[in-house]
Design brief:
The complex is a heterodimer of chains A (404) and B (377). With 404 residues, chain A is α/β, with parallel strands linked by helices. Helices cover 41% and strands 16% of the residues of chain A. With 377 residues, chain B is mostly helical. The chains are: A alpha/beta (404), B mainly alpha (377).
Chain lengths: 404, 377
């Protein structure tokens, strides 16, 4: 029997098979390798954009001498929090495609409709051309060719803050204040970076569908604190709740921006202790866990709620904030305690015009978010909370000195 | 006693002298031009390495010299160039590994100092990481205990081994000794292909299907159990175990089996008393490789576990899965900074030491079996 097998093995030797598999596998890997090459290309271009910006500083010096010519048009890079990412990335996509005003859906207006906030823009320029030209860039007048390209990477708040401080990217997206993310003093923050707030994020507390069906539609601040600090284990231990189910408490990655601001705003202290059943890094994972487990409670960005993941109303010191946008007090209000600012930090550099902490590319890109158009399309349509008019006017006025 | 050390010393001295002689012979036999080329290659590569470590922009200069010298040497003195190139690549491989080891150990020093505990009046660095069980990187008291993660890794590894070892070894035995050739020729490569499925695929199935299912069936609060992570990781390690164990079993010399059959044993008796014992070292190496995979498995564990470092109650409760050493690193590297980041390096050091221990153990078993069986296996 074994001799037979020896013959058979001779015919189709295992080694031969393995080498065939290896070739196939290598081919498969080559496919993957291609895409990872793409990734490393991206990082390589990040690196070169670092070079580019230092070149750019020279170019900017040249600018001041000649007072004409284009500004630095190297790739504008941003990176950071998954919470700010939808806003930042959608803005970047709109910017890069540089839609013409006849588009109607992404920019400008036609007979089918016009973009939100168009009446305060009313231009015949292309999207990125319009915002960039205000800061001295030459319009390309060519769709898909913005005056400078933008790209947004996805990582974490802390990583984004560190990346902008290290000069790896131009804009650091963060869902928590940089003082908390990097353990800085406020003075260090003021000397190192500029805080550009582009929108607000409410952190609704969400429950799974079975909890909602059992009649839990609102909790008060103290009950939520008890749940997240492990003082109650079952839903029926809460006043006014008749649902016998163990509470499955979902927290966020230890030390993340979301985690820190929840501890600060809900538990009273950024270092408050927590007792949770699981911790997840990404909003998507939290939403998935809430939808596939019973008795779950979590907190996450509003953008990820669904009919399985339902936000509940919260009673803070007598004021009831409801998820319904038409209610008297809603979780969209700026005084809702779980609301937090969404930051795009830029580094204060010596060659920035007027020492403003933004170069012209950063200012032009940022300015897009601070219009009625930007707030509606990039912030509100992503289920975040748009900035009130007074904030918009104030933030826009800070960019004014950079305009040409 | 003194004579022994003297003898050792003279032995060392003669050996050193012999080496020096060989070196001198080599220098005498080689043309001066080739020697210069070799020296230039070695020195420029070393300079490039130092430049790289110092993040100097001039690194490119010695590296270009190295390339030029190698190119020149390859055409003029191929033998000597090949010798020096293979030598330098070997040295740099070892050097890089050494630097990585030094780095992970150095990065873990701050948290080891932070987690000092006093025993009998003596402060032992790092001890508190193993005697306390609290991990909390935010709320005071901030503690970075490794005990919960070590517990988790042990749990997952034990369950995975319990799944992979019996299944793997019996499958290997079947494929090698019992199965008809056609079955073997189809099944063995098929099993090896299974080894190529990325772990995130298993993890994703575990997260979306097994997790919620276990949560319902066992009436657990939420999902994430050591039991199912262990089962999944065991299944992932299975192809490795089957493949390596089958190789070991089929490499048992035919003469041994034939001899056994000739004295009248049945096939089964030959398997259990000749083939398996003879291939024992290879089979245990297979199981140890599987264990190594289970310990190092990251993606599936990260996705399926709860990510809250704490011990389960009681300790052998497999229905709650908290965190393993690898998933701790994978889950927290993005957010961690300061001591928390250093604590992740401690987890890396523990993994490194464990895997080192396992491979030394596997080598030792192999060495002992070889001595016992006379080197045929």
């Amino acid at each position: 029997m074994t001799q037979d097998s020896a013959r058979l093995s001779d015919r189709v030797s295992r080694r031969k098979f393995l080498s065939t598999t290896a070739v196939l596998g290598a081919a498969g890997l080559a496919g993957c390798g291609g895409s990872s090459d793409g990734g490393s290309d991206g990082s390589a271009s990040d690196g070169s954009s670092g070079d580019g910006s230092s070149d750019g500083s020279q170019a900017a010096e040249g600018d001041t001498e000649t007072a004409t010519g284009g500004s630095d048009t190297s790739l504008l890079t941003a990176e950071g929090s998954s919470t700010v990412y939808p806003i930042s990335n959608k803005g970047s996509s709109y910017w890069n495609s540089n839609a013409p005003p006849s588009d109607g859906e992404y920019w400008g207006s036609n007979e089918e409709g016009s973009v939100p906030g168009w009446d305060e823009i009313e231009t015949d320029m292309l999207l990125a051309d319009y915002f960039a030209s205000q800061f001295g860039f030459e319009p390309t007048e060519q769709r898909s060719q913005a005056p400078f390209q933008t790209t947004v990477g996805l990582s974490h708040s802390g990583t984004g803050c560190q990346a902008v401080v290290d000069g790896l990217v131009d804009i650091g997206n963060s869902s928590g204040p940089i003082t908390a993310e990097l353990g800085w003093s406020e003075e260090k923050r003021d000397n190192t970076v500029v805080d550009n707030v582009v929108g607000r994020d409410g952190q609704p507390v969400v429950v799974s569908k079975d909890v909602s069906d059992a009649g839990v539609s609102q909790l008060n601040g103290d009950q939520i604190r008890q749940i997240f600090q492990g003082e109650v284990d079952n839903w029926n231990e809460l006043d006014g709740v008749d649902y016998d189910k163990e509470i499955y408490v979902i927290g966020r990655a230890e030390g993340s921006g979301t985690d820190t601001s929840f501890r600060l705003n809900m538990l009273g202290d950024a270092d408050a202790s927590m007792e949770v059943d699981t911790r997840q890094g990404q909003n998507q994972q939290v939403a998935q866990l809430v939808s596939q487990n019973e008795g779950a409670i979590a907190y996450m960005a509003l953008a990820f709620t669904s009919d399985q993941v339902l936000p509940i109303a919260i009673d803070f010191e007598g004021t009831l904030y409801e998820p319904d946008p038409d209610a008297e007090h809603t979780i969209f209000d700026s005084d809702y305690p779980l609301n937090r600012d969404l930051h795009m930090y830029t580094l204060i550099e010596e060659d920035n015009p007027d020492g403003g902490g933004r170069d012209r590319r950063e200012a032009a890109f940022m300015n897009m978010f601070l219009t009625q158009f930007g707030q509606t399309v990039f912030v509100e349509q992503n289920n975040y909370i748009p900035l009130p008019t007074s904030d918009l006017e104030e933030f826009r006025s800070r960019l004014e000195p950079l305009k040409e | 006693m003194p004579t022994v050390t003297d003898g050792e010393r003279t032995g060392l001295q003669t050996r050193a002298r012999r080496q020096a002689e060989r070196f001198r012979d080599f220098v005498d036999d080689t043309s001066p031009e080739a020697l210069v080329t070799m020296t230039v290659i070695a020195v420029s590569l070393l300079a490039a390495f130092v430049g790289f470590l110092l993040v100097s922009s001039l690194t490119v200069v010695p590296f270009a010299v190295f390339l030029l010298a190698s190119g020149y040497g390859w055409f003029r003195h191929q033998e000597e160039t090949a010798l020096i190139l293979t030598l330098t690549t070997t040295v740099s491989t070892l050097l890089i590994l050494g630097l990585i080891i030094v780095f992970i150990f150095r990065e873990s020093i701050p948290v080891v100092q932070y987690e000092s505990a006093t025993v009998f009046g003596v402060s032992v660095p790092g001890l508190r990481m193993f005697v306390e069980t609290r991990w909390d990187a935010v709320a005071s008291p901030v503690r970075y205990s490794m005990a919960p993660m070590i517990h988790g890794t042990v749990m997952v590894t034990v369950i995975a081994t319990a799944v992979a070892a019996p299944l793997g070894v019996s499958a290997a035995l079947f494929l090698s000794e019992i199965a008809p050739d056609v079955v073997r020729e189809v099944v063995k490569p098929g099993v090896e292909i299974l080894a190529g499925i990325p772990s995130i695929v298993y993890g994703f199935i575990g997260f979306t299907v097994l997790g919620p299912w276990a949560s319902d069936q066992f009436d657990l609060s939420g999902q994430g159990t050591y039991l199912f992570v262990g089962v999944v990781v065991g299944l992932m390690a299975l192809p490795t175990v089957v493949s390596v164990a089958e190789d070991a079993l089929s490499s048992v010399p035919e003469s041994m089996k034939s001899g056994s059959l000739a004295v009248g044993t049945t096939d089964w008796q030959t398997m259990t008393s000749i083939t398996l014992p003879a291939a024992f070292s290879g089979v245990s190496a297979a199981v140890l490789l599987g264990v190594g995979r289970a310990i190092g498995e990251t993606m599936a564990a990260t996705v399926m576990l709860r990510g809250v470092p704490r011990l389960t109650e009681p300790l052998m409760n497999v229905f709650y899965g908290q965190e393993t050493l690898t998933s701790l690193i994978a889950r927290n590297y993005g957010e961690a900074d300061g001591l928390q980041l250093d604590a992740l390096f401690v987890a890396g050091v523990i993994l490194f030491v464990t895997v080192l221990g396992i491979s030394i153990g596997a080598q030792y078993i192999e060495w002992r079996m070889r001595r016992k069986l006379g080197g045929e296996v």
